[in-house]
Amino acid sequence: MIYTSDLNRASETAKIIAARQPGEIPVVATPELRECDYGQWEGLTRPEVAVRFKEDWEIWNKGGRTGSPTGGEDSLSLAGRGGRAFDAAVREGKTVLISTHRVTLRAILCHALGLEQAFRDRFVVMNCSLSALECRPGYRPRLMFLNDTCHLDGVEI
Measured between alpha carbons, how far is 141 from 113 in angstroms, rounded to an integer? Predict the structure, then answer.
């Protein structure tokens, strides 16, 4: 099963992956896997946000981005919805793939590994990278690999 954000980029990625598998793989789109809602910061560069929303930007960057973008989603809400989506995906104990966005994935990693959300900026997650957790019933999830991009060798981005 593939779980994906219902936003185009992640959803298209999930569909491409599913189509390349030997058997039929269901793709389930859910808004819980969407990227963080950046509110009034949407479409702005980091330097633009730092100038226009100085106070909120400083709070966002302290302690692992614990604040919220101006008019946007706070980090605990993001972590909650990402964590719920992860828990639902792994509940059956089967192999699943989650296609989502950078900040959401980092929030899910903290949730799965039992880390405070303040640690999420310590994970580097590039576009198109793969990360894997082993989730066995009765055991804590284990990080198998993070930010793997070897499948992109030779691909011009």
Answer: 6
